[in-house]
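Structure first, sequence second, as always.
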C-alpha cells in the first residue's frame, strides 16, 4: 500500500497537467528505475542458482506479449485516469473491480461458491456499497469541476 501511494502521488506530482506531460517518458523513467533497482537482485539470484534463466523462446515471447498488452496498457490507462480524474477518484474507482467480478461470476454461471444466505447477503450488500461509493465519489468530483 505504501509503494502504491508513493507511485500515485509521484504520478500526480511529476505529471501535474494532462497536456504538458509525456507519459511515455514518465513510464520510461519508471522502467529504468525498476531495472536499476531490481537488476542487482536478479543477477545475484541468477549467479547463486536460485533463479533459472533457462526459458523457451516461445514462453519468453508469450510473457513479453502479455506484459505489453496487459500490464503496460492497464498502467497507461490507469495513469490517464489519475491525470484526468485525480488520484483519489482513480484509486477508489479501482474498487469497482470487485462488483464487476461478482457480476461476471453470476453471468457465467459460476457463482456457486456461496451456498448460505448470510454470506450471499453480505456479498450483495458489499457490492452495492462499493458501487455506491464509486458513484458518489465520481459525482462529487464531477460537481467540483
Amino acid at each position: 500500500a505504501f509503494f502504491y501511494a508513493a507511485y500515485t502521488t509521484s504520478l500526480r506530482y511529476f505529471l501535474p497537467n494532462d497536456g504538458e506531460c509525456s507519459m511515455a517518458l514518465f513510464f520510461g523513467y519508471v522502467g529504468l528505475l525498476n531495472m536499476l533497482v531490481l537488476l542487482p537482485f536478479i543477477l545475484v539470484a541468477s549467479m547463486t542458482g536460485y533463479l533459472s534463466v533457462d526459458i523457451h523462446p516461445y514462453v519468453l515471447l508469450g510473457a513479453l506479449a502479455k506484459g505489453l498488452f496487459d500490464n503496460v496498457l492497464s498502467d497507461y490507462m490507469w495513469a490517464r485516469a489519475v491525470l484526468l480524474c485525480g488520484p483519489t477518484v482513480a484509486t477508489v474507482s479501482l474498487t469497482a473491480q470487485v462488483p464487476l467480478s461478482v457480476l461476471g461470476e453470476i453471468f457465467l454461471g459460476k457463482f456457486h461458491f456461496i451456498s448460505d444466505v448470510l454470506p450471499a447477503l453480505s456479498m450483495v450488500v458489499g457490492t452495492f456499497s462499493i458501487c455506491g461509493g464509486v458513484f458518489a465519489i465520481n459525482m462529487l468530483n464531477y460537481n467540483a469541476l
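Margin note: Residues 1-85 form one domain.
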